């Protein structure tokens, strides 16, 4: 019955533990899913806002080119029908080349004189758009991009306007406008991920969204004054712009039905007050975690319980059979034990047994009678407890290891301490008792008392002879070591001193005397204030006290002002212990590292300048690629589009070559944009290190099939030099993982700790190469970037495989190398 209850209790406990483990696993999975969703929200919102801004402002250069065209100026100069026809053909060409909705030209009063939609029912020709902000801004000389609903076409668009200047007078004679549809934004840019995107103006009116039922609705309860202002601007039609009654505060959104959404908000740089909001349902995120548990965990737990029941039944039947066999074996064993105990305790010899941990597990009555102990005082204690110190050391270091290695020892001499404190010399012979695996499980030892007086006399004579030999040898060694130590103190270039624990000097070496001009003076018993300059004495005293208080060796940096200037010393200080384990002195060794520090500072400044020049050159090249080469490629693309349209119905082979040229130019434009971003990412200067690293990781996610994890906590804003160094280190580490490691997952973490920024990049790839020279210039560059900002970088094999790049960068300026060294700045050895 007892066995049955134990097995049933075991089964119940197992089921409970399985359920608790499942619940804890589900909780951790839920928290991890929410955290990952919030990170993806931020990253996606940042990427989409950047792409949205790029799309909405990409026509600033084309409309500027349109405003500078000769046909545009001729059309605004008069009512020449030929000039208007040329202008209309040019507008058609621009509309087709750049894929915009419409291009048109407005006179100085705001009336449209030419348009690419002139033959359509909603033609702009003759329409007066002088009330539009984009016209008013452009006619005053300021190019502008404006988001609004068309009053004629009733189509949403981004209006890019630019003033048209007369070549003769230099005055503004009109405005050129390109209107791009926002439908591309909703169908392409806002369909990159699950969730809801919306773009709202400063009053909260939704102008762009992947939910069409939200268009022209407001995320805030508009006042009557706000409604009149929106209606007057005609930016979003005639209204009424109802409130969607959703509580959107930037990070958390709650619907009228009390559904919770996670949200991330990003501003649009060129549109003051406009915001992009990206939301995902919190419940849908949790469903991705809950569904596998609901579908799998229930049947799994039920099946597990059935298996546990079957296993318990099997164990019960097997246990019953085993118990029957053991009962009989125990009866036989008890009989054998009774016979063994009788012989063991009635034999007139000192018998004892120990286990493999040297604990006494059995002693004979004769052993207890000879030593005076009781059985309770002996059993369970270590055998060496009853030995004298010499015998204990001999047993632990020699006899016991030898016995458990060979299984036998004979006539081993040792001294045993009796209960009354007296000792007895015995000779021990021991045999091993093996278990069923042939391993030593216990011992059977026989101890025989020997003539104590004779043994003592023999040992005394031998001890005297050994002591005499040892004394002579020790004297020779002392003389030899004294000469060696004297030579070291005399000729070493380092400063060496020895102090008492009260701070008074015992001795200093010749170099110390020479530096302090103390030749011929006795320093014994004198203090730092007696023989050292005040500043140097304060440093030495404070650091010496720290070593004595902590009982440990430390390394410090200390300064001493001499006739030729300030010298910096690397000081190694350590306590000296007596035979009783007490500190009775302190030793200091000071090495002059002044010139070494100067060289290191020059090298660090040189490296900083070289890398700074590299970054400036990267930025200049990036700007030239983006501005000059980008504009040239744009112009070439326009010519290719025109050439393709011209050859469409005339020469099919030439038309195909022209379209191929246009595709190549498009790919080149993409490559130029990517190279410009890699040379100097603008997000690093505009948004900071964290957003730059998130953008970098997002770019790697799109270009590779690896999984990336980015975690950061309490990362402050860094100066440009430090943020650039950290960004380049992370970029190089990711590049190495992609190129060399064959990894499937890379994790990047950043956090602040102890006044430093800790950066850790880890992959699960092949790990570091065995040859350090195989690391190449990439790793050397990372180490150099960490060094010039005062940090340190190391690479090591990650536990379980892969490579870890660990960088530690100080967040505050380190004290000058000549500054006073506090004990906390010392490095423990």
What's the helix count?
A: 21
- CATH T-level topology of the largest domain: Heat Shock Protein 90
Question: pLDDT under 50 segments (min length 5)?
Answer: 813-824
What is the mean predicted local confidence, pLDDT?
79
- Based on CA atoms alone, the radius of gyration comes out at 44 Å
Shape field: elongated
Helix content: 40-55%
Q: How does the major sheet shape up? A: 6 strands, antiparallel
CATH class wording of the largest domain: Alpha Beta
Fraction in beta strands: 15-25%
How far apart are the termini? 63 Å
What is the CATH-assigned architecture of the largest domain?
2-Layer Sandwich
3D structure, described in words:
This protein is of the alpha+beta class. The chain folds into 6 domains: 58-181, PAS domain (Beta-Lactamase, 2-Layer Sandwich); 186-281, Beta-Lactamase (2-Layer Sandwich); 348-450, PAS domain (Beta-Lactamase), CATH 3.30.450; 492-592, PAS domain (Beta-Lactamase, 2-Layer Sandwich), CATH 3.30.450; 593-680; 683-829, Heat Shock Protein 90 (2-Layer Sandwich). It has 21 helices and 27 strands. Strands 7-6-11-10-9-8 form a 6-stranded antiparallel β-sheet. A 6-stranded antiparallel β-sheet has the order 18-17-21-20-19-27, sandwiched between helices. It has a 5-stranded antiparallel β-sheet with strand order 2-1-5-4-3, sandwiched between helices. The longest helix has 65 residues, at 282-346. The chain is elongated. The two termini are 63 Å apart.
């Amino acid at each position: 019955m007892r066995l049955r209850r134990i097995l049933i209790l075991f089964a119940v406990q197992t089921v409970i533990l399985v359920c608790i483990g499942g619940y804890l696993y589900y909780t951790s999975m839920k928290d991890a899913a929410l955290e990952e969703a919030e990170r993806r929200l931020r990253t996606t919102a940042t990427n989409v806002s950047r792409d949205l801004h790029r799309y909405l402002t990409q026509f600033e250069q084309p409309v500027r080119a349109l405003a500078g065209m000769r046909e545009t100026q001729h059309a605004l100069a008069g009512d020449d029908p030929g000039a208007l026809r040329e202008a209309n053909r040019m507008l058609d060409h621009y509309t087709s080349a750049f894929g915009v909705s419409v291009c048109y030209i407005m006179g100085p009063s705001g009336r449209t004189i030419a348009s690419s939609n002139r033959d359509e029912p909603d033609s702009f020709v003759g329409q007066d758009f002088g009330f539009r902000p984009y016209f008013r801004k452009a006619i005053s000389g300021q190019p502008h991009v404006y988001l609004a609903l068309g009053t004629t076409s009733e189509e949403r668009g981004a209006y890019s306007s630019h003033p048209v200047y007369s070549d003769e007078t230099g005055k503004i004679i009109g405005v050129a406008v390109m209107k791009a549809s926002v439908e591309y934004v909703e169908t392409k840019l806002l369909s990159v991920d699950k969730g809801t995107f919306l773009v709202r103006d400063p009053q909260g009116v939704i102008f762009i969204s992947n939910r069409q039922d939200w268009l022209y609705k407001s995320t805030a309860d508009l006042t009557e004054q706000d409604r009149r202002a929106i209606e007057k601007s005609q930016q979003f039609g005639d209204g009424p712009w109802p409130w969607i009654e959703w509580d959107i505060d930037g990070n958390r959104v709650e619907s009228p039905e009390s559904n919770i959404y996670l949200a991330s908000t990003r501003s649009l740089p060129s549109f003051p007050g406009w915001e992009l909001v990206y939301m995902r349902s919190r419940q849908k995120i949790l469903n991705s975690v809950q569904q596998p548990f609901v579908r799998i965990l229930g049947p799994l737990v039920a099946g597990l319980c059935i298996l546990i029941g079957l296993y318990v039944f099997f164990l019960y039947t097997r246990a019953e059979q085993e118990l029957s066999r053991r009962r009989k074996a125990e009866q036989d064993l008890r009989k054998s034990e009774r016979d063994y105990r009788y012989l063991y305790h009635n034999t007139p010899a000192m018998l004892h047994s120990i286990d493999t941990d040297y604990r006494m597990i059995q002693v004979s009555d004769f052993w207890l009678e000879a030593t005076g102990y009781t059985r309770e005082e002996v059993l369970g204690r270590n055998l060496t407890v009853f030995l004298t110190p010499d015998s204990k050391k001999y047993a632990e270091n020699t006899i016991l290891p030898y016995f458990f290695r060979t299984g036998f020892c004979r006539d081993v001499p040792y001294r045993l301490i009796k209960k009354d404190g007296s000792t007895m010399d015995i000779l021990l012979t021991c045999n091993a008792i093996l278990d069923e695996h042939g391993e030593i499980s216990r011992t059977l030892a026989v101890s025989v008392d020997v003539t104590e007086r004779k043994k003592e006399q023999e040992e005394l004579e031998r001890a005297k002879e050994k002591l005499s030999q040892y004394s002579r040898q020790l004297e020779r060694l002392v003389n030899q070591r004294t000469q060696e130590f004297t030579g070291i103190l005399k000729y070493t270039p380092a400063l060496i001193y020895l102090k008492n624990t009260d701070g008074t000097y015992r001795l200093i070496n010749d170099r110390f005397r020479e530096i302090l001009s103390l030749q011929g003076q006795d320093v014994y018993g004198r203090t730092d204030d007696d023989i050292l300059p005040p500043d140097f004495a304060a440093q030495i005293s404070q650091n010496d006290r720290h070593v004595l208080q902590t009982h440990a060796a430390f390394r410090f940096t200390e300064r001493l002002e001499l006739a030729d200037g300030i010298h910096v010393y690397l000081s190694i200080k350590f306590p000296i212990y007596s035979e009783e384990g007490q500190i009775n002195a302190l030793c200091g060794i000071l090495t002059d590292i002044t010139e070494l520090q100067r060289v290191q500072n020059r090298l660090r400044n040189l490296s900083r300048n070289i890398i700074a020049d590299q970054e400036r050159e990267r930025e200049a090249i990036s700007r030239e690629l983006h501005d000059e080469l980008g504009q040239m490629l744009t112009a070439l693309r326009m010519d290719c589009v025109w050439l393709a349209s011209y050859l469409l119905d005339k020469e099919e082979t030439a038309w195909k070559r022209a379209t191929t040229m246009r595709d190549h130019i498009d790919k080149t434009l993409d490559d130029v944009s990517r190279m410009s971003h890699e040379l100097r990412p603008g997000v690093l200067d505009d948004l900071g290190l964290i957003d730059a690293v998130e953008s970098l990781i997002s770019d790697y996610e799109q270009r590779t099939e690896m999984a990336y994890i980015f975690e950061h906590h309490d990362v402050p804003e860094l100066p440009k030099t430090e943020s650039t160094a950290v960004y380049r280190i992370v970029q190089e580490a990711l590049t190495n993982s992609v190129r060399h490691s064959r990894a499937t997952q890379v994790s990047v973490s950043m956090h602040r700790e102890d006044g430093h920024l800790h950066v850790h990049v880890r992959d699960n790839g092949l790990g570091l190469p065995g040859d350090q020279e195989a690391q190449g210039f990439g790793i050397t560059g990372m180490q150099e970037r960490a060094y010039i900002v005062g940090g340190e970088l190391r690479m090591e094999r990650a536990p379980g495989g892969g490579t870890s790049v660990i960088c530690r960068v100080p967040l505050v300026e380190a004290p000058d190398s000549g500054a006073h060294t506090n004990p906390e700045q010392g490095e423990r050895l």
